[in-house]
Write a structure and sequence with these properties.
Rossmann fold, 6 strands, alpha/beta, single chain, 6 helices
């Protein structure tokens, strides 16, 4: 009998939410699980993406965002990418093909109004009982937090970006 899948949320203003989710994805792949990662709001090449290519036989990674951060009001293209991502994530979750599905930055997509928390929750609810779902990003909605089985809040205590250090290849990007 397969184990019961849980809902995990990694949120907060601190660094490491996506990194934690990718670490879990690699662990799951090592255990023979199939993994689907939908990255919302992200499209630029990063070292984490390059690393995940090495696991392409068990981890499928899809991007649903542009190469730039959304500053101000999201564009029509931002809305379209997020909606397509949510549609593909729903299909991946419901398919039963994956034991772990990561919805990276989905909390931020909700916060920006690219899709609603109700749409996110109904997407998660479509999962077979054995599918683990991880949702990352700042500003997790309280309804998602209540639904989740595990919530981790990353809290920034100190960060060198406040001293003007840009994102570094292999560490932050």
């Amino acid at each position: 009998m397969p184990m019961k899948g849980r809902i995990q949320v990694y949120t907060g203003n601190g660094k490491g939410k996506t990194t934690a989710a990718i670490g879990l994805a690699i662990r799951a792949a090592g255990a023979g699980f199939r993994v689907f990662i939908a990255q919302f709001l992200k499209g630029s090449p990063t070292s984490e993406v390059a690393s995940l290519r090495r696991f392409s036989d068990s981890i499928e990674l899809r991007h649903f965002g542009s190469e730039k951060f959304i500053i101000g009001k999201p564009s029509d293209a931002d809305f379209a990418a997020a909606r397509e991502g949510l549609k593909e994530a729903r299909e991946a979750i419901a398919s039963g093909r994956y034991q772990l599905v990561v919805l990276d930055e989905a909390n931020v997509a909700v916060h920006l109004g690219l899709f609603s928390v109700d749409e996110l929750i109904s997407t998660i609810a479509a999962r077979p009982a054995y599918v683990e779902v991880v949702v990352t990003g700042r500003n997790a909605d309280h309804r998602l937090i209540e639904l989740a089985d595990l919530v981790t809040e990353m809290v920034e205590v100190k960060h060198y970006h406040r001293e003007g250090v840009e994102a570094r290849v292999g560490i932050e990007k």
